[in-house]
Amino acid sequence: MVTAAKVGELWCQRDSHARTLDTTVVSCEPSAGGAGTFDVVLADSVIFPTGGGQPNDIGTIGGVAVLDARRAGMQCVHVVAAPLEVGASVTVEVDWERRRDHMQQHSGQHILSAIAQNEFGLNTISWSLGKQLCCIEIPAAEPKQDVLDKLEARVNEVIRGHHDVTIDTRDHDESDRPEKLPGDIQEGIVRFISMGNIDRNPCCGTHVKNVAEVQCIKLLHTERVRGGNTRIFFVAGDRVFKLMQASLLRERQLTALMSTGPENFVDRVEGFKRNIKDLMKTTKKQTKELKDLAAAAAAAGVAVAGASGGDAGQGGGKGKGGSANGGKPGSGSSSIDSSKAGRGSRAPAAAAGPDSPASAAGSPAAAEAESQPASVRE
Ligand SMILES: [Zn+2]
């Protein structure tokens, strides 16, 4: 009877660079919950289940997609898209790009946490490997930029140091269990990962074989979190280059949009902000003037309507008011300005109505015109 290798001794944990493995299907059951997938256990695997802060691998078993992998007790359970025959010989293959990325981030975190603690007194209490960014959380206020710069420089110096990453194991000992070991693990082996003499930590994850494989680490920004803790965000390895490529692309787009080089972006944007502020001020002033004129035109329209039987005010926006000027000083120019304002701010149209002259200044349309200077510029 074929048995399954225990988590801790999986092939991917013994040789993190193995991409394929010929093995045997030990069991295959429909996944719980009627998801239409199948839970498969193999005699051994190069697919790592979620653990140690490292997300699971994906890949294929005999050409069938592995959608997820998780630890259940001491077994690695592969969630696959189609059933596999128990006892069948299969080749399992890991999605290497994803695994390599995970190893760079995870191993990079070991180095970052070790240097932060040993040389800067910043203890890592948790970490996260996200799809885009990673972070470590420290129980301290946000470090100053010069501290972060020195930390980043030291971490990259260690990476350039080309230290071997080694694994040693011992049998599980309940009287000496590592602090971070999941509570349900009470057997098997405990793995310790060493990076030269920089770091030694119990960890179940997959790691690079030499710290140089991490290539580099870039610290990004910090974020205060509850309890006075701070998260320090970072990326390692290929993610650094991807992030830089995305930044360069945005920089090229901005260069074209602003017609100036990156060294002038800040000055140019500050100029834009000043111009917008001035324009807003001018627009607000002109909108108020238009509103006052509209109110005056409306008032004039009401007066004329009262004298002519109520139809003269209808021409307020179209110049008909000219016939109703009736010798009232200024009412002619008011009707012309009202017409202009009506096309721009939309407020005077309401103001010109004979039934609601008082609504000019306080009408919703007038208020909208005031709060939306862009419409005046149209
Ligand atoms: Zn680790």
Task: Walk me through this protein's architecture.
By secondary structure, the chain is α+β, with helices and mostly antiparallel strands. 39% of the residues lie in helices and 22% in strands. It has 10 helices and 13 strands. Strands 1-2-5-4-3-6 form a 6-stranded antiparallel barrel. Strands 7-8-13-12 form a 4-stranded antiparallel β-sheet. The longest helix has 44 residues, at 265-308. The protein starts with 10 loop residues before the first helix and ends with a helix. Bound molecules: zinc ion. Residues 52, 106, 110, 193, 203, 205, 207 line the site of zinc ion. Zinc ion is lined by residues 52, 106, 110, 193, 203, 205, 207.
Backbone shape: elongated
Strand order of the largest sheet: 1-2-5-4-3-6
Total helical elements = 10
What is the mean predicted local confidence, pLDDT?
A: 83
Give a list of the ligands: zinc ion
Biased composition (Low complexity): 331-378
Family: Belongs to the class-II aminoacyl-tRNA synthetase family. Alax-L subfamily.
Region (Disordered): 306-378
Cofactor: Zn(2+)
